């Protein structure tokens, strides 16, 4: 059972909460970790049993979408809870199966590092479970007397995920007792000996027992207590014949956690669960609205019978539900306004706030109410940095009078990331808790210091050592039965301090934010306006300066010649291609113009792309224009280039005025890898390309290059977090802005109030103090939104606005291209349609997929096409022994006899599938990303062409 406070971004890559305020105030216990209608003509039908249910023809487009959003938010906790209960109490072949309904299952041990099935486990309280079915008769729970100093709790949760009752130390004491659990329709008399009747709103639900373990040697005592937890039907308790059994339930198979996010089958499962949940009086109007789109108890929601318009509407409503979830997290949870105490509890406590129930289920199904337990996560240290013990040591210090105030006990648990599991260590210690305090060493002032690190802190400190993995980790401070001072917010958990550093080195968090902090809208605008500059600053810097970059040019005005196609070691640029050879040249145009002499190529596709920090793209040369049949000499300069103002020069065939002093010219060459001799000729031509300054071209001495200090570069979120304004000042000083261009004016206007303007010297003391972590979170969210736009099943809406010259694109398109793949070609040179799943769910590595295209369905490429597989999280190739990441003319493919193709994606090569047509999904579970590349596209045909979908192979 997982009870760790954590919000993990899953395959949709929801923004991770990492602010200091969050880790002090927000905690969500996790039990089982994750887990558009235009006008509607006519009507669609669904079925309930044998009778037809007509979806209301009066429903308008807007109404159907709104209802779908509302029903999804309302139903998510029920659908996700049912998923877990199905594995616990129905599917006996599931490794998580506990016991049949109405039978208790004791887990007589705590979790260790060898338990890998459930993420975020605790190692404090062995668990017992039973799933209840109250349709025939009530259930009687008998609890034994337990010693006064041992905490235990019994949590009762209905299908809505309301914590409607508790038994145990806090509520009923440790003297034991007999209690009856009755369903919503039971009308009988309370039998003698029953101390209290507990009413469940729903006929099905779950009961979760937690029994405190003091130390490993105490486990036999816990086992003895667990054997005395008794669960009986009422007839068994009374020694009477059992009543007529309820009808056998034909349990519907649940969706996977990822499928729940977008599959319309979600509503069919919701309808199934609703038949065990009588309508609450406060929700009659709600259910009447839901009925308009076919949602209601016992109905069959058949998505296949829906019109395309209705399907679009309901899918859009589901997507809007996730937008509402993200907004709640970003604007209220991350600020500490909404906490775990707000989202877990009774119906009365939640007051029908279904968005809160949704958030609670998504981030921690069946979490405790705050009166029973509070969970305080440690995601970052005191300076706001993520936790990593491979190079850091940490200390958590409690003042002498400020240990966690609890009536029961507290514990601090270590979890390695990204697995979110207990970590193996030489002393088999996964936590430090309050029962251990007498054996811990106290500080001279009576305080308590805990040492959080990978290596032992030394024998004299080892008693206070909580071993960390050799890498990233998080921790959870659990407070069982917290005192009022915690519930009222008057006790604050201490910060985790970095022991191997005396001060913060993060400029984004060294100083407090300005008193007049920007609004969410202002921050969002700032990040969107600047994303292209940050992304291209990183790309160009990596290309010229990062010696670890496999395609590093080794400095400015130099080239790199790729003699092989890129492989999985390419981790500098997201979503690199695996079908053309790259020849990048990094340009420094400050002190002299630069000349590149391009050779002729024996290739049907070669294209030159140029860009600077502003990320507008020029295509000055391409085989689609008839270039590269003859050698071409080209000159590059800017408005600031010393000694050259654009005058004609003999021997120069073409000039290009760049917008930035620092830029890149990327040459892509189709190598014809299936023709070895032709590939050799193209590689030889690439090697013959020459780069020189204009002075050198004219036979003069090379000019002295001015010194320049480049701000730190890395990935986009890092820059937004740590040195955003410094980077923007640098790019402003080396970029030409057009006062007549709206986007240029807007970015200048966004930065001027912050102290950043062209031609100024960066001075940290004279610029605004921004919350870097906040900027990074927004940038991460925008990046994920951009990826979803890029891969939308209906096709990228910005396809014909990407990678264009200034004045030809839009801010929205610029953000998408900068966040997803900063080095790309415009639509007339190449198109990059994403390949989604046929059922609309995210692509995952564990199923096997097939992508089918007949001869007539192949991409309309005048040059060539390819299909490439990436991991969705980073946009990198998935390593494999064959170094094969693409299917296509250069990477290998095999058409069938009719000229079509089947491409398979699977962990192992499927039987009968040609090796050329198989891409390995790897040996770990992760979300996948598939991109088609169509080079030299037939633009008119592309407008009518539809990208294929990946189908699961059953």
Strand order of the largest sheet: 5-6-12-8-9
Q: Pairing-aware structural class of the strands and helices?
A: alpha+beta
Given as residue ranges, the uncertain stretches (5+ residues, pLDDT < 50) are: 1-59, 501-515
- Tell me what portion of residues adopts beta-strand conformation: 15-25%
- Helix fraction, binned, reads 10-25%
**How confident is the prediction overall: mean pLDDT?**
87
Q: How many beta-strand runs?
A: 38
- Assembly of the depicted chains: single chain
Tell me the radius of gyration.
31 Å
Helix count from the secondary structure assignment: 21
Shape: globular
Question: Main attributes?
Answer:
single chain, 954 residues, alpha+beta, five-stranded antiparallel beta sheet, disordered N terminus
What features would you describe in this structure?
The structure is a single chain. This protein has 954 residues and is of the alpha+beta class. It is built from 21 helices and 38 strands. The longest helix is centred in the N-terminal third of the chain and has 29 residues, at 61-89. The protein starts with a strand and ends with a strand. The model is unreliable at 1-59 and 501-515 (pLDDT under 50).
């Amino acid at each position: 059972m997982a009870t760790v406070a954590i919000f993990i971004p899953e395959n949709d890559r929801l923004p991770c909460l990492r602010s200091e305020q969050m880790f002090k105030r927000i905690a969500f216990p996790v039990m089982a970790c994750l887990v558009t209608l235009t006008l509607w003509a006519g009507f669609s039908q669904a079925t309930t049993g044998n009778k037809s249910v007509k979806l209301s023809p009066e429903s308008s487009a807007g109404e159907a979408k709104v209802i779908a959003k509302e029903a999804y938010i309302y139903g998510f906790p029920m659908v996700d809870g049912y998923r877990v209960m199905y594995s616990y109490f129905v599917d006996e072949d599931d490794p998580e199966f506990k016991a049949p309904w109405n039978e208790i299952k004791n887990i007589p041990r705590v979790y260790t590092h060898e338990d890998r099935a459930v993420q975020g486990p605790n190692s404090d309280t062995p668990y017992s479970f039973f799933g209840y079915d109250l349709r025939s008769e009530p259930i009687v729970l008998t609890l034994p007397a337990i010693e006064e100093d041992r905490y235990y709790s019994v949590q009762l949760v209905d299908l809505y995920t309301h914590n409607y009752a508790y038994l145990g130390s806090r509520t009923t004491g440790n003297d034991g007792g007999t209690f009856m659990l009755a369903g919503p329709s039971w009308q009988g008399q309370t039998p003698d000996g029953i101390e209290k009747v507990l009413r469940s709103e729903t006929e099905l639900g779950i009961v979760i027992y937690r029994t405190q373990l003091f130390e490993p040697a105490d486990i036999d005592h816990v086992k003895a207590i667990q054997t005395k937890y008794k669960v009986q039907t009422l007839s068994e308790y009374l020694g009477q014949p059992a009543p007529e059994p309820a009808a056998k339930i034909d349990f519907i198979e649940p969706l996977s956690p990822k499928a729940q996010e977008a599959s319309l089958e979600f509503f069919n499962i919701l309808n199934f669960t609703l038949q065990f949940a009588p309508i609450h009086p406060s929700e009659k109007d709600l259910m009447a609205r839901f009925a308009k789109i076919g949602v209601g108890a016992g109905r069959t929601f058949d998505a296949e019978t829906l019109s395309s318009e209705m399907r679009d509407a309901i899918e859009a409503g589901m997507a809007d539900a996730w937008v509402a979830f993200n907004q709640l997290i970003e604007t209220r949870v991350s600020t500490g306004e909404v906490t775990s105490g707000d989202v877990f509890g009774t119906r009365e406590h939640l007051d029908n706030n279904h968005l809160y129930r949704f958030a609670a289920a998504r981030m921690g199904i069946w979490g405790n109410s705050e009166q029973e337990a509070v969970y305080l996560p440690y995601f970052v240290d005191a300076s706001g940095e993520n936790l990593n013990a491979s190079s850091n040591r940490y200390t958590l210090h409690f003042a002498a009078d400020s240990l966690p105030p609890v009536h029961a006990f507290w514990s601090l648990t270590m979890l390695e990331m990204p697995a979110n599991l207990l970590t193996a260590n030489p002393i088999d210690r996964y936590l430090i808790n309050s029962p251990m305090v007498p054996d811990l060493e106290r500080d001279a002032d009576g305080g308590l210091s805990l040492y959080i690190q990978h290596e032992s802190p030394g024998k004299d400190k080892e008693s206070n050592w909580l071993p960390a993995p050799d890498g990233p980790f998080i921790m959870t401070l659990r407070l069982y039965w917290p005192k009022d001072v915690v519930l009222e917010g008057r006790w604050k958990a201490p910060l985790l301090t970095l022991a191997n550093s005396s001060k913060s080195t993060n400029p984004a968090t060294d100083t407090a934010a300005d008193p007049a902090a920007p609004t969410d809208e202002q921050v969002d605008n700032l990040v969107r306006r600047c994303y292209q500059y940050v992304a291209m600053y990183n790309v160009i810097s990596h290309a010229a300066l990062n010696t670890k970059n496999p395609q590093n040019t080794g400095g400015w005005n130099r080239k790199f010649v790729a003699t092989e196609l890129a492989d999985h070691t390419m981790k500098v640029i997201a979503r690199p291609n695996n079908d053309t050879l790259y020849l990048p040249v990094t340009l420094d145009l400050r002190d002299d113009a630069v000349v590149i002499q391009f050779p002729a190529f024996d290739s049907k596709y070669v294209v030159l792309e140029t860009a600077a920090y502003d990320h507008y793209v020029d295509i000055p040369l391409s085989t689609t224009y008839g270039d590269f049949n003859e050698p071409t000499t080209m000159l590059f300069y800017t408005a600031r280039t010393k000694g050259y103002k654009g005058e004609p020069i003999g021997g120069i065939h073409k000039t290009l005025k760049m917008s930035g002093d620092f830029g890149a010219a990327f040459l892509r060459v189709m190598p014809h890898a299936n023709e070895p001799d032709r590939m050799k000729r193209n590689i030889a031509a690439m090697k013959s390309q020459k780069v020189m300054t204009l002075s050198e071209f004219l036979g003069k001495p090379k000019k002295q290059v001015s010194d320049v200090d480049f701000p730190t570069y890395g990935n986009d979120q890092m820059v937004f977090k740590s040195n955003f304004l410094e980077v923007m000042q640098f790019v402003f000083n080396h970029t030409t802005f057009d006062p007549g261009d709206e986007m240029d004016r807007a970015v200048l206007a966004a930065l001027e109030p912050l102290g950043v303007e062209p031609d100024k010297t960066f001075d940290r003391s004279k610029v605004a103090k921004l919350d870097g972590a906040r900027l990074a979170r927004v940038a991460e969210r925008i990046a994920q939104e951009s990826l979803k736009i890029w891969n939308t099943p209906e096709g990228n809406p910005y396809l014909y606005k990407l990678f264009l010259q200034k004045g030809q694109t839009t801010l929205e398109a610029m953000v998408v291209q900068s966040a997803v793949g900063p080095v790309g070609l415009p639509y007339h040179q190449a198109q990059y349609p994403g390949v989604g799943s046929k059922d609309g769910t995210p692509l995952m590595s564990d199923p096997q997929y097939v992508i089918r295209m007949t001869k007539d369905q192949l991409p309309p490429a005048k040059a060539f096409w390819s299909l490439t597989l990436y991991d969705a999280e980073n946009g990198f190739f998935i390593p494999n022994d064959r170094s094969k990441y693409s299917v296509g003319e250069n990477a290998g493919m095999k058409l069938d006899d009719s000229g079509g193709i089947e491409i398979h994606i699977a962990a192992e090569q499927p039987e009968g599938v040609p090796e050329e047509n198989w891409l390995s999904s790897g040996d770990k579970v992760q979300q996948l990303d598939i991109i088609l590349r169509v080079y030299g596209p037939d633009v008119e045909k592309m407008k009518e062409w539809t990208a294929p979908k990946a189908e699961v192979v059953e």
